[in-house]
């Protein structure tokens, strides 16, 4: 185990070869499942467990450290990458009490069938003494489940934030005490985009809450922990702000090249007007990279071919994802090509119903685009550039 303070120790595990999370989220580098041991003068608490298939590694760490008794297992979040080895830990330490909030208790009982007698249910701001140190529980729902909470070690000013402020980023450097780590910033942004962005307002609220606590350590459930909290808090303040950047994101799919002609021309026209553009071929692209760019995008333009009188299924999947992630974009449009008819524009607008965007004119062409069609693309680019001047 790695010492963080005199009272807090890291006992998490790494999962370098995992490449997909929740059968959805790409993991370019793998991930970590962070578990922490908090040792007081009278009692010992384990903060979260680990993913089920990594239970043995956590148990071995506890045994090697000579941990003969755990009094409390704090469950900040019921999802199995946090609680999945809870039954194994309870078997090793049968006297341990599971401490969590009512909603998390409900989830753990449903998903892991832990007996109700094992639980101690706490409420917001409630404290638990370990002797010389005190745990305080801060109910913090919707980052990213309704059961999430933070645990605060008052004397050490250390805050365990469960998934919030995490990153799928296994690294030998567990403690981040400085700013400017480009790879970590990218991993944290990917994590925010894929998992936290739908709950942007809650994220902003909890960043302020953490600022007010003036913590010394931030200890999330994935990736490194921070002895320089400003590093991750500053980035979250930027990502959760209401102000997007001068950026257009264009996810697209093109069956026979006509939609791609429109998309490429739009990109060139926008760049000539000083607008940054990111293209994503929805058949080939990493959805995590698309999500990352959506964090800052002011405008989203979906490019699609028509299939059976509607948008291409890849465009529908992409639009569904964008709608679920709820980025802070201000404007939306569609460009595309069809063969014999259909309604791609309205169907995509329906799918994107969660977005609070102004819909700009779309450019929908029959067959291969003509010079007149490219003039319409230029007009769309001009409109977007003009809108972005007011950001």
Would you write up a description of this structure?
- This protein has two domains: 2-240, Metallo-beta-lactamase, Chain A, CATH 3.60.15; 248-385, Rossmann fold.
- Helices cover 34% and strands 24% of the residues.
- The protein contains twelve helices and 25 strands.
- It has helices at residues 55-64, 80-83, 86-92, 102-112, 182-196, 200-213, 230-240, 258-272, 287-294, 313-325, 344-351, 371-388, and strands at 2-3, 8-10, 13-15, 20-21, 25-26, 31-33, 36-39, 44-47, 72-74, 97-100, 119-121, 127-129, 134-139, 149-153, 158-160, 175-176, 217-219, 225-226, 247-252, 276-281, 299-307, 310-311, 331-338, 358-359, 363-366.
- The strands form six sheets. Strands 1-2-7-8-9-10-11 form a seven-stranded mixed sheet.
- Strand 23, helix 11 (344-351) and strand 24 form a beta-alpha-beta unit.
Descriptors for this entry?
2 domains, 7-stranded mixed β-sheet, Metallo-beta-lactamase, Chain A, alpha/beta, 25 strands, 391 residues, single chain, Rossmann fold
**Oligomeric state:** single chain
> What about the largest sheet?
7 strands, mixed
Count of runs of 4 or more consecutive helical residues: 12
The CATH superfamily of the largest domain is Ribonuclease Z/Hydroxyacylglutathione hydrolase-like
CATH topology title of the largest domain: Metallo-beta-lactamase, Chain A
């Amino acid at each position: 185990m790695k010492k963080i303070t005199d009272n807090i120790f890291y006992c998490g595990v790494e999962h370098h070869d995992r490449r997909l999370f929740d059968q959805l989220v790409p993991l370019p580098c793998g991930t970590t499942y962070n578990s922490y041991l908090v040792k007081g003068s009278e009692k010992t608490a384990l903060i979260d467990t680990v993913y089920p298939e990594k239970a043995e590694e956590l148990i071995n760490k506890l045994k090697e450290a000579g941990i003969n008794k755990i009094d409390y297992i704090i469950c900040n979040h019921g999802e199995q990458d946090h609680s999945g080895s809870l039954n194994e830990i309870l078997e090793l330490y049968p006297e341990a009490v599971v401490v969590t909030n009512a909603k998390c208790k409900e989830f753990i009982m449903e998903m892991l069938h832990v007996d109700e007698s094992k639980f101690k249910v706490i409420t917001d701001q409630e404290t638990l003494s370990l002797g010389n140190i005190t745990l305080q529980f801060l109910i913090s729902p919707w980052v990213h489940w309704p059961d999430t909470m933070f645990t605060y070690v008052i004397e050490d000013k250390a805050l365990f934030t469960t998934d919030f402020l995490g990153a799928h980023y296994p690294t030998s450097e567990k403690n981040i005490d400085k700013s400017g780590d480009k790879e970590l910033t990218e991993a944290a942004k990917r994590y925010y985009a894929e998992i936290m962005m739908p709950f942007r307002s809650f994220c902003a609220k909890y960043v302020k809450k953490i600022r007010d606590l003036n913590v010394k350590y931030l200890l999330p459930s994935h990736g490194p922990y921070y002895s320089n909290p400003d590093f991750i808090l500053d980035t979250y303040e930027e990502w959760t702000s209401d102000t997007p950047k001068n950026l257009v994101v264009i996810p697209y799919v093109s069956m026979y090249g006509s939609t791609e002609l429109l998309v490429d021309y739009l990109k060139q026209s926008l760049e000539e007007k000083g607008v940054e553009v990111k293209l994503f071929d929805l058949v080939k692209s990493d959805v995590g990279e698309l999500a990352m760019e959506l964090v800052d995008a002011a405008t989203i333009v979906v490019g699609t071919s028509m299939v059976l009188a509607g948008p291409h299924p890849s465009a529908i999947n992409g639009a569904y994802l964008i709608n679920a992630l709820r980025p802070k974009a201000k404007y939306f449009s569609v460009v595309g090509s069809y063969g014999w008819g259909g309604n791609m524009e309205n169907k995509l607008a329906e799918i994107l119903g969660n977005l609070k965007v102004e819909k700009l004119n779309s450019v929908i062409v029959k067959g291969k685009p003509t010079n007149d069609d490219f003039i319409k693309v230029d007009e769309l680019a001009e409109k977007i550039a003009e809108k972005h001047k007011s950001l």
